[in-house]
Amino acid sequence: MPATPAWPPQSTPRLFVEESLAPGVRRIDGPAAHYLVSVMRTKVGDPVKLFDDATGEWLAIARDVGRRDLSVEVTECLRPRETVPDLWLCAAPLKKNRVDWMAEKACELGVDRYVPVVTRRTVVDKPNTDRLRAHMIEAAEQCGRTAIPQVADPVKLPALLRDWPDERTLFFADETGGAPALDAMRAKPGAAAILIGPEGGFDADERAAIRAMPQAIGIALGPRILRADTAAAAATALWMAAAGDWT
User: Fold this and answer.
1) What are the percentages of helix, strand and coil residues in the chain, rounded to 5?
2) Fewest C-beta atoms under 10 Å: which of 6, 56, 89, 111?
3) What is the dihedral of CA 102, 241, 108, 157, to 10 degrees?
4) How far is residue 119's CA from residue 191's CA, in Å, rounded to a whole number?
5) Which domain-ending residue is among 79, 109, 127?
């Protein structure tokens, strides 16, 4: 006998919604409706996957499709919101394209919270956090994530260090040298954060202030010089392999 086709199909469109989901009929408009109606050519009876960063991912069926909006019936929860490792990415904002890429990768790799940190050599001191969240949402839609990283307001480095929680380890990428990152992360499991400086690096006073923190551990990311966005992705991947949910 032929195999029963998977339902819903792998090709089912997948969208994030701000409001908590539950069984029932809901209206979709704006850019999401344009994507479903004009791009994906959704028709009555077609499935749609919705997720809300709270209750998980749900199956919905298109019931009334107009030119600029549509109604769907949310029918069942396909899976609950995923458990996210307790990792923050604290990174200096970069120029637009590079910080957008970093936000996408932070979401794909499983970061729980992104904190833009303003240092003395930071080029961009007022990042567009709404745009960064939008890039994370798009990454989550494409990669099947049911959780979206929190995006904190920008904070200056002295304030970040002053208010740092006692129980959270701070692994900071120190271009002057540190412990091998993977070894350090394996030796210190639990709540953690990764601190990445700007393209010009931390200055001497900033580095000294970070090293003075009892929660801080300087790490090295190998023999090659990495751009800040690459360093953020590399350090996050190493932490996930050592202490996150990749094991």
Assistant:
1) 30, 25, 45
2) 6
3) -30
4) 23
5) 79
**Bridge pairing between strands 47-51 and 57-65:** antiparallel
Instruction: Assess whether 121 and 19 both reside in one domain.
Output: no
Calculate ∠ Cα 230-114-117, nearest 5°.
80
Helices 129-143 and 96-109: angle between axes, nearest 10 degrees: 40
For residue 4, pLDDT over 80 is answered with no
* DSSP 8-state secondary structure symbol assigned to residue 44: T
| pLDDT (tens digit per residue) in 88-134 | 999 999 887 889 999 999 999 999 999 999 999 998 878 899 999 99
**Is there a domain that residue 127 lies in?**
yes
Q: How many domains does the chain have?
A: 2
d(CA 112, CA 244): 11
- The first and second tokens of residue 16, run together, are 């994030």
- Write down which residue in 63, 79, 95 finishes a domain: 79
Task: Please report, for residues 36, 53, 58, 136, 144, the alpha-carbon distance to residue 73 in angstroms, rounded to integers and kept in the order given.
Answer: 15, 19, 10, 26, 21
Pair 74, 174 in one domain: no
What's the pTM?
A: 0.92
Question: Which domain range does residue 226 map to?
Answer: 87-242
